[in-house]
Amino acid sequence: MRGWWQDLSDLVLPGRCAGCGRARTTLCTRCAVTVRGTGPSRVRPRPAPPGLPPVHAAVPYRDPARAVLLAHKERGALGLARPLGAALAGAVAVAAGTGGGGGGGEGPLALVPVPSAPRATRARGHDPTLRIAYAAAAELRRAGVAVRVLSVLRQRRQVADQAGLGARQRLANVTGALEVAGGGRGLLAGIGRIVLVDDLMTTGASLAEAARVMRAALGTARPGEGGDRKWNGTAHAASGREKPEAVTVRAAVIASSPDSFEINRN
């Protein structure tokens, strides 16, 4: 686990750019612009797992974005959370249709991070996806978007390390692995739009599993290509709160595999 002296050194000793290695900066201007991207794109892996919601990504997963993501996730470069959050916020805004702010009249917006394995979080000393989600929410609020971060998903069983697994193996590995934590359904009451967030999409298996669990918790039918259907009338019965007419589940990531950008359906 990171010591207090490591956290302090991140603040006062900038070191080298996480993207290109330039001295005396944690992230140079050029790499910051590259990580932010020129505009989020609709991405879809080949093959796409069943139930994968529409996903938007800020940039392809290649250097310097790859190097910056790894520095934040694996080396605990916590100062990178804000620029990465800004990149994620851009993808969320497009996925949720917030436009210039406010939110398009579809109800409150919630960012739901895809959870890391508890053992990975302990080994890293932090939860990178949750940290970036909070940074993205702060960026969206500055733009006038009403947004909450709801960390309501958790792993219900242990999964294998996804590294080295193919698309079918990853899907089998994570199917049935997630659940909504106790009390999570109550937190979701009144939410009109949900954007699942993660730092990276490769095969889309984790996002598809997270979307399945969210739809089950919300009582929605499986969505068609154009979006989620009406609620089935049973969700939130115990909450005593009026249900929205519909709820949408989308996804946003900072980076995705370069070939997934070939299917651009913006």
Q: Which spans of ≥5 residues are poorly predicted at pLDDT below 50?
A: 1-9, 100-105, 223-245
Mean pLDDT across every amino acid position: 80
Envelope shape: globular
Q: Write down the domain tally.
A: 1
List the helices and strands and how they pair.
Layout: H1 4-12, H2 29-36, E1 41-43, E2 55-60, H3 65-74, H4 81-96, E3 109-113, H5 118-124, H6 128-142, E4 147-149, E5 153-155, H7 167-174, E6 178-180, H8 184-188, E7 193-201, H9 205-218, E8 248-256
Parallel strand pairs: 2-8, 3-4, 3-7, 7-8
Antiparallel strand pairs: 1-2, 5-6
Helix pairs in contact: 4-6
Describe this structure in words.
It is a single chain. The protein has 266 residues and is an alpha/beta fold. The chain has one domain (4-262). It is built from nine helices and eight strands. It has helices at residues 4-12, 29-36, 65-74, 81-96, 118-124, 128-142, 167-174, 184-188, 205-218, and strands at residues 41-43, 55-60, 109-113, 147-149, 153-155, 178-180, 193-201, 248-256. Strands 1-2-8-7-3-4 form a six-stranded mixed β-sheet, with helices on both faces. Strands 5-6 form a two-stranded antiparallel sheet. Helix 4 (81-96) crosses helix 6 (128-142). The longest helix is centred in the first third of the chain and has 16 residues, at 81-96. The N and C termini lie far apart (41 Å).
